[in-house]
Protein 1
Amino acid sequence: MKQFLDLADFSRDQVDDLVGLARRLQQSPEPRALAGKILGLLFMNPSLRTLASFQAGMMRLGGTSFVVTPGQGTWQFETRLGAVMNGGAAEHVREAIPVLSSYCDALGVRSFAEGKDLAADLAETQFLAMAGLCEKPFVNMESAVNHPCQALADWKTMDDLDVPRTGKFVLSWVHHPRALPLAVPAATVHMAAQRGMEVVVLRPDGYALPDAIMNRARAAAATSGGTVSETSDRDTALAGASVLYAKEWGSAACYGDTEAEARLREPLSGWQVSDDWFGPARPDCHFMHCLPVRRNVAVADEVLDGPRSRVVMEAANRMTVQMAVLYRLLKGYSE
Amino acid sequence: MKQFLDLADFSRDQVDDLVGLARRLQQSPEPRALAGKILGLLFMNPSLRTLASFQAGMMRLGGTSFVVTPGQGTWQFETRLGAVMNGGAAEHVREAIPVLSSYCDALGVRSFAEGKDLAADLAETQFLAMAGLCEKPFVNMESAVNHPCQALADWKTMDDLDVPRTGKFVLSWVHHPRALPLAVPAATVHMAAQRGMEVVVLRPDGYALPDAIMNRARAAAATSGGTVSETSDRDTALAGASVLYAKEWGSAACYGDTEAEARLREPLSGWQVSDDWFGPARPDCHFMHCLPVRRNVAVADEVLDGPRSRVVMEAANRMTVQMAVLYRLLKGYSE
Amino acid sequence: MKQFLDLADFSRDQVDDLVGLARRLQQSPEPRALAGKILGLLFMNPSLRTLASFQAGMMRLGGTSFVVTPGQGTWQFETRLGAVMNGGAAEHVREAIPVLSSYCDALGVRSFAEGKDLAADLAETQFLAMAGLCEKPFVNMESAVNHPCQALADWKTMDDLDVPRTGKFVLSWVHHPRALPLAVPAATVHMAAQRGMEVVVLRPDGYALPDAIMNRARAAAATSGGTVSETSDRDTALAGASVLYAKEWGSAACYGDTEAEARLREPLSGWQVSDDWFGPARPDCHFMHCLPVRRNVAVADEVLDGPRSRVVMEAANRMTVQMAVLYRLLKGYSE
């Protein structure tokens, strides 16, 4: 295992191996497993959980890390091939990535979607170019349309909660003041499909996920025995649900058009998860969200502070699964 | 010991234990005492000494740490209960604190006063709410009206200098371009009273410390055998003083009213400590300040560069006492 | 060895010792050599390589480090003696440096030229004042007119590449949207002269390096057996060159005059290194640059992505030589 770019690159057995290793390291810590190993962390975008959990995870395995945040103590990076760099960016990733990878034993990179050209973002053009520049093990800490660490943490969280592999999983769009990237919804719908679940994407008109994302999830479901459907009807979606996973995202139809997006989402403030959403769901239905979450905009306090909420558990599992990923990347399968 | 929120929570014997442990760790380093332990550091506000000394202190005990600074690589945090989060803050401390505490073995938080509502700031409403959200040992790295790490460092500094426990301690207001929080003056007056000293608060009219702060210090003095008084007369205050502790703070009378504050402080630029302030003091009177200090505005170069200044020693003691605090929080009383 | 301020402070034998130690540590890692040692890193200016390579280098020797970046989580620093600090800067380096040095075992500082007063910048007035405030081993991580870590990395890179000590070394000015400091060109011309090379500074009219810099390099050449000359004729400069080292810098003639500088450089966009520059050079002529580099402004893609480019190797050597410097500073010559 040399790269952790996409959970779709791994079979269910391989995912189970990572979740199992994460659990084993929780029960039987190995505080010297990665002694002497250095993780470089490059954040093109803000982070809380990822920033803290990767550092803490390395520490818990005896390794160390350094953080680079372009624009904060470092100049801005250029990512476009062939760019004439006479603007704000002083360094190109074609230098920055090989240089940083020369200092560390593995490199994690976060680089969100540009949000202008949907096809380019869906193709992960920039992110894959960066990954290709790195000679060391490489970790996707959230790219244009993927967030495999979050997906793996959510998979483990459902395992920890004994959510059936064939349970009903509802990914619901929720309100937010502005359009957010497609990375988490894309990773989540695929993860639940890959896990074998009955996946329903609940979203208002105009907020369907792009075909490329839905088709990819449907292909995963075809392999795993799950299903993927979508609806704008809340009660239909939630009937018998084991999990309601809320997420904010921008409209693919208005991609890059801020004003049209604002008009489209303006009447949708009712898409805020409250306790009454759970009426048609199973009594033990869990509430999940990757965080950060805007309270009383995307999700009501009563849900986040109520007994269904698993959001802190999901975040805590970011560290546990990332430790397993780093262990496999840096130590392989010898144990 | 599960929390280090306020020096007032500790008896003099307990403070002496911490100072003694700090000294012992200086003389007999224990470079593996906290091996495998992780300290999370959350800074809502700028820091120099705290940022560097907590990290270095953990390293000197064999532990590690990570730093999170909302707004710098991380989004802004919301702290108000029930907030509708449609503004700049993307994450609530109700998620952020439990999540961060899941990654570490102890969490330090800095969160200054809002500076709008004096009663709310004096009650430490927000800070205590954050501390209550953390299941791990918790350290106050400066809150609305407290700074126990600074107070403990200053206590040790006076012990190191053999300043008598019953000596005269003058806390003097000094000039600054704008109103600063009450955290350090509140912590300092209480610390000196708790130590048993003859405490005098020297301040111009309009800059009396709030009754809640003064009464709390008087109660500590009643227990320790010290006294607490206040005056606007410099010579009276400094007569026979063993310590002059300078600090900038805002007027409680104009709390949150920037313009009234500016008018009030405008004529007070003479409140800048210079060598001639020390005329009535003891010949060996020490000069103290928590730093950062604006040279030639709050304190003249001649004092900061002169033989009375202990400001670097105080700052160096931030690390030594914090190591003792972390040791007690993470290792308890076994040694 | 107590300070690493300037490569000119070291004899060629001492430089060879550092390069040799760097190489030995690459071949035979000593992962516990600096166990328990703490490096403080103070960045007054942005950084990528320096930030990451110093942290990673300490980690590879078993030590640790902390980073302070004034203005990012820390207030701005004042550096002028006697300043009345009623502006933006809240802390003076006269406090900050001794305080930070009390927490660590060695301190690295980056502080670029102010770019207003050439004589003051050439004299390194501010930087030497900071170095003088530090009681611990001190490292120059780039000052007004020096960058000894880069110079040492470049020396080792040429040794690694078997570039003859008497080879022809061309330092060429290249275009950039604005005037950059003189630190790297000053350090580079001196390093190549000290190494004994035939040094040619190639620059357009108006961009001659200050006499103080050129004379210092000529003195080094006189000792080493090298030579130092300058020209504005590209073909003359590059005839028989073993190395073309490109760097952007501001005109000493317009120092501090942004508008005059802009007018002077406006017609010079042709000073962008492309493959055809290498015609008169040796077939094996290497291309070097300290990074960051603006692609297709200072240097064309074809050169940076071509077989002559050593820019990533130079950056990788930042870590290897800094490990040797830290080793000598913190462990001395015992091995």
Protein 2
Amino acid sequence: MKLKPSQITRKLESLFLNNHVKRVYRKPPGQMPGTAIHTGAKRVENVTMTIHDFDLSHYDVIPIEKVEKSEPYILNKSKTWIQVCGLHDVDKLRTIWDYFELHPLIQEDIVSTSQRPKVEFYEDAVFIVMRLITHKTEPNGTINLHTEQVSIVLGKNYVLSFQETDEPIFEPILKRLQQQTTRLRKLGPDYLAYALMDTIVDHYFHSLDLVSISIEEVEEKIIDKPEERHLQKIHALRRDMIFLRKSVWSLRDGINSMIRDDSPLISNEVKIFLRDVYDHVVQVIDSIETSREMIIGLYDMYMSALSIKMNEVMKVLTIIATIFIPLTFIAGIYGMNFDPEASPFNMPELNWYFGYPISLIFMLSIALGLLLFFKRKGWF
Amino acid sequence: MKLKPSQITRKLESLFLNNHVKRVYRKPPGQMPGTAIHTGAKRVENVTMTIHDFDLSHYDVIPIEKVEKSEPYILNKSKTWIQVCGLHDVDKLRTIWDYFELHPLIQEDIVSTSQRPKVEFYEDAVFIVMRLITHKTEPNGTINLHTEQVSIVLGKNYVLSFQETDEPIFEPILKRLQQQTTRLRKLGPDYLAYALMDTIVDHYFHSLDLVSISIEEVEEKIIDKPEERHLQKIHALRRDMIFLRKSVWSLRDGINSMIRDDSPLISNEVKIFLRDVYDHVVQVIDSIETSREMIIGLYDMYMSALSIKMNEVMKVLTIIATIFIPLTFIAGIYGMNFDPEASPFNMPELNWYFGYPISLIFMLSIALGLLLFFKRKGWF
Amino acid sequence: MKLKPSQITRKLESLFLNNHVKRVYRKPPGQMPGTAIHTGAKRVENVTMTIHDFDLSHYDVIPIEKVEKSEPYILNKSKTWIQVCGLHDVDKLRTIWDYFELHPLIQEDIVSTSQRPKVEFYEDAVFIVMRLITHKTEPNGTINLHTEQVSIVLGKNYVLSFQETDEPIFEPILKRLQQQTTRLRKLGPDYLAYALMDTIVDHYFHSLDLVSISIEEVEEKIIDKPEERHLQKIHALRRDMIFLRKSVWSLRDGINSMIRDDSPLISNEVKIFLRDVYDHVVQVIDSIETSREMIIGLYDMYMSALSIKMNEVMKVLTIIATIFIPLTFIAGIYGMNFDPEASPFNMPELNWYFGYPISLIFMLSIALGLLLFFKRKGWF
Amino acid sequence: MKLKPSQITRKLESLFLNNHVKRVYRKPPGQMPGTAIHTGAKRVENVTMTIHDFDLSHYDVIPIEKVEKSEPYILNKSKTWIQVCGLHDVDKLRTIWDYFELHPLIQEDIVSTSQRPKVEFYEDAVFIVMRLITHKTEPNGTINLHTEQVSIVLGKNYVLSFQETDEPIFEPILKRLQQQTTRLRKLGPDYLAYALMDTIVDHYFHSLDLVSISIEEVEEKIIDKPEERHLQKIHALRRDMIFLRKSVWSLRDGINSMIRDDSPLISNEVKIFLRDVYDHVVQVIDSIETSREMIIGLYDMYMSALSIKMNEVMKVLTIIATIFIPLTFIAGIYGMNFDPEASPFNMPELNWYFGYPISLIFMLSIALGLLLFFKRKGWF
Amino acid sequence: MKLKPSQITRKLESLFLNNHVKRVYRKPPGQMPGTAIHTGAKRVENVTMTIHDFDLSHYDVIPIEKVEKSEPYILNKSKTWIQVCGLHDVDKLRTIWDYFELHPLIQEDIVSTSQRPKVEFYEDAVFIVMRLITHKTEPNGTINLHTEQVSIVLGKNYVLSFQETDEPIFEPILKRLQQQTTRLRKLGPDYLAYALMDTIVDHYFHSLDLVSISIEEVEEKIIDKPEERHLQKIHALRRDMIFLRKSVWSLRDGINSMIRDDSPLISNEVKIFLRDVYDHVVQVIDSIETSREMIIGLYDMYMSALSIKMNEVMKVLTIIATIFIPLTFIAGIYGMNFDPEASPFNMPELNWYFGYPISLIFMLSIALGLLLFFKRKGWF
């Protein structure tokens, strides 16, 4: 018996809803490549499309339903950015894809929301896939990292961006677009694509900051008193770092290829800025590696703290037991019922005048001797 | 005394039948290279051969016994795919090899079923070896990964595929072949080879999904209560990942060489699709690495959970023992038989009016004191 | 609910003040690149600027307030070094930036004080970012590493240096500048830039020396008696090494690019000296790796020392308990109240003539037998 | 005082005889390079030399004593293979070296039997050093790996092979040489060299098979019951893998250089076969890495199995001790000798009608309560 | 408060004298590069300089005090080797440096005795820094590795060698120089430089041999009985390997650059020999890595041996305690003083005819039952 794909999917879906985001989730094997099937969960109610049309002289924002109606904006000489939020309505997305004649593999990748970051050069477009990482503080104070796929298509005169949710991450860019003097208005669509990428990369730093805070907090608590939930926290942090690294790692090569490629779509002026993003990505990767080592260090520290506590417990047991076991034995001796009257050798101590005090003093001196022995060993 | 090859083989065979698939299994040393000897277990009853002959206008499927009889299908201008299931009947296979004049080393590799994945360029053919990974759910609920070697020979006008079993993994491709408008019918045999490779790679994702589910399940159970069988499960997962990685790792370079090679057998159009497969393989390798780290994390977690449980056991023992050992000692004291009549110093407490209650209260206060001490230490 | 950036910042700020220097700290996401915002803590009261104007014939040091007033020094043929201490007053810094027309990204990097070390080539300047590492001995004897960012801009006829504090690290260079015959006076501004870099790299060796001493000290103490605070010291050392490595690692490639680049700003004569700095950086990285392995070794040693101590504790417990438990049992036997008068089988030993001595000798021989057993096992 | 070289040598020799083959064993420092000194143990009685002279029309095998006497075989047009078994008689070997004018460094390497595998190109010869790995089953069932150095010199018309023992590993090649139609007879001496290399590489697979079997066996036993000798077995396996890897690793680059080099001594036809050997070596290295990970996994498993057993032991102790310690205390209470006649408060229970049964029931209920507590904790 | 450099130096000096040789020890930061300051300890009484003047026809050895006086030897056509032992007298060294006009950076590196190995090409000289490793057996039988820096300057017609001590490591070369027919006399100064390097590399093998012996010895002892001093030995071995690796690692690239460089100072004939040294260095690095893995394996083995011993200790305690605790409880029961006369329910067993024997048999059967239980569990 084999597990049916649908069963696997259902299981994975439930893991996904419980925030286990590390899933690999794809179309069934053997299916036609270039088939656009949305493989993620529906994360917004409606797919919204917004046209941002701008050049040095104007900046218009128009929500659209059908891409054909907005053809004037696309055809005119000014730069056009179509921002799409929500990926579950493939038919709606297809209207855009068909209009811009995107390659089937681009289409497939936009809606297969478990892509690794990459930059691909097609004849008339650059296709960029990135993972946006945001964080949410749960009511109980824990901070969870969330991820969504953001795809950017950079064409001759336009930029298309596709994101899974309507998270307002590009808000600052909209504000900058409203100012006439910014480079965004002056330079070409490649600078806009750069700005979008830069914004996403900037978010990584904030997620890393949060992880750093968590590491510090756990570290302080472990030194104080190691508990099982700290172990789970460390494990969760480890997962987060694996997950973060996976989201960023391959981006480095992607951006590097943008800097080194001769594509006419990317100007030299923007390449200097891309070099800056590249530098940031390298810095993020560095920080991730650093955090991973810190987390491994945390784990080692946790285990040693456990060992230390164990040692302490064992010492208490050993000290108490080692002191009282011989004493109890002596008390047991004088609790024996040998008949003193049957023979002068039978426990004559019981009838000695100072029998009891002597035995007590004897016990006391044994106890003190053992205490001294443990003291010498440095056990307390 | 040396272990005879046959003994080794028998031992390995038994390991193999018990699903220990990591075996390296080959022809005896010193034998002529290019000797085709089937080195795997017989996994289907009969070797079956099927010709798929197709172009834009037609698609025929003909089971064949002898390759000579089907020469018309091969010689005509349409594309031909000969699908072979089962590798134990080397004589039957040789009829095909001889007809297509395959290099002896290709012949040897097709039936030596422990090859690592590779892509080799010969003068008039591209030889591709891949490992298909499927899974089976056992009656007891465990999921086992199975592997078989699939070899693909891509020639000028034909594709030969050799698989160990008759697992219907290429079913979806057959369905797509029946539709006249698909790229499979339009493009050359290189696209068919690509489609076969893509299907095999897609299966990796499903195996990885199952591993992810297992990891999640084990993780939850370990947090709850670590048991020895979880350790064995972790160990098995670790083996699976080592095995998966070995099956995929070298494929990356192989596909890369297909993309970069100038062989006339592979068109530029198909290379874009191969780039997609390449990307998937990299993604699979990424996921395998991620899973391996997760499994190592699981192991660490298991060991810490064990330590925590141990600590807990020790604490219970220490608390109980530490409280009662001194009390028992005191009870032992008053169980001594010193004769109170022999001297006024001999256990006068035994005759005190409140001797017994006082001793009980004394014991109780010691117990409470120790409990307080443990409480302060944070032991419960 | 999301954690507001300001809250994160505040948390990070408090970590920072408590000497947790591994922070990643940056401008909010989406902001215009090239925006110069000081992201570190204010570490000196006032931003001071000093002009060092020198050639073979003279050397003048002039503290300045406004860069325009010192234009003569800059425009003349002699070499000019403007040393800036303190980065929090961006407006003041901007006067220099504007005067020398630095690229906005250089401006941003100078005041974003968590850059990784790098060397970037612009059209008319080389931009070098390094991390200076100094150490302070706290009143309690612990040694803390401190870091600050030092940026160097090497132009055609000038060098600009920006540091966070007024730490007098370049003091020895000032002294050498006063001597007329030094290479500093003879060679161009590239040699000055080299000298600054060399000084910073030399400081790494001193930090590493201190770490080496700490490692030796901890090692000796652990062998003597492992304590929890040693574990924390090891953990702190580990963090220091991660942090040091991060500060130096990427510098290697940076300096290498200076040696290999054809920039007219760096002469061949200076490149031989840069090769020397490169060599030192490699040596520092080597030493860091060595120290890291030593620290891991320390950790392993600590854990084994713990285990050994634990074993010792357990042996003491086991020896004492194992010897006295059987003896106490025997004493317990003869403490039973079976009535010897009810039957001749009821504890006749109690009335034997040598009953008590025999029982004592019996106990003694058991104790000696067990001691012999433990001796044979090599337990003490 | 220094350890004299002779003392070191003697120590190493004894280690060597006890099968510790990882020794580095060489000429004393400062000696003239190119000095041929046999550094291994004498492993056959006499050095034997055999000439195999063959071409398409004939195949002769002649044992020789002096190389000069066989000059006709060497000078004729047919291919000549001189097989030398035993390396301790350097004078005898020198007759061959001198005849073929081998470079002094080749001479030195042939008899220094701890070379790492390598391929070196000289003007008129290719010098190949490999390590043959064979296994022997000891009477007690353990399998030991043995190694010897095999050197191959490939010249224009001849092949020289030097091995330490007379292990008949090239037997299958001799058989193939007797058949007139094999490639060995058709192709040049380069194909013979290839065939020798292929045979040696094939032996690696058999050693790896044995290691795999050992790993499986140990794994099964550890799951069943971990014992100290398993640990030693794991340690021995680890050493074997380190040793195997060292024997194979550098061979990869060597063979690769043979494939890529333009030496006229190696034909393109043979290069295709060398590509196959290269592939096998890579596969061996892969398997070694896999086995190493499996062995590390075994070790982890062993340690966890130990911990689990420890936990079990502790639980038994804790359950028994925790149940009986309080009961013994209660029994101790009623064994106290407070005089009931001295006061009504002094142990009135002793005279109660149901005193004894009540106390027994009280003890029983405590025992049951504790059992229930442990049951709840999941301890059994 | 900062630690003064002098304090650090003093601390490091004391560590150094106690044979902690891993120190990084350098000139104070900011000092003029190319300043020759001796940074090591004084290790010979006087700096001695010896001229070896030789060609095919003669070989003269002359101890010199001032380099000028020996100018004839240097200026003549024969090859000259100036061997300097001792580095603390910089003024004396400077006479040589000045005579040969060595670059200031070479001068600095010769006396800064913590250089990593390197090969640097200057216009008219090749500068080689190596670390010589020797060993000394202490009176207590432990073997310590010692290191010193050996610098070689290879010029057109001369070789300069600088070593820290007068250790007679080049003795064998002197002997070979006395023989007229050796290559040393025939070939140029590059061959002499090669011979010096070869001698130093040969010493590595002897140090590695000693480490191998130590590893074997510790391994045997650990299997027998793990003790704390073994742990310290393992730790010391680990340090030695880290230290050895550091001394050799970068030499590989250095020698490689000598083989590949086109410097006229190194002839092709000598390059073949350098290839041999290169090979040895790679072999040393391989062996170091192998030894490191062996040492890690030792550590793991030590830890497991500790765990096994711990388990054994716990088992003895558990068996003894678990058997006697219930028995003692039963003895305690019959030691209670319930008055049999107060009620027929009060301990009637005490008056049974077979009361005592029955109780003893009961105890015995409990003990046997528990023993059987432990036997079944495989505890002994």
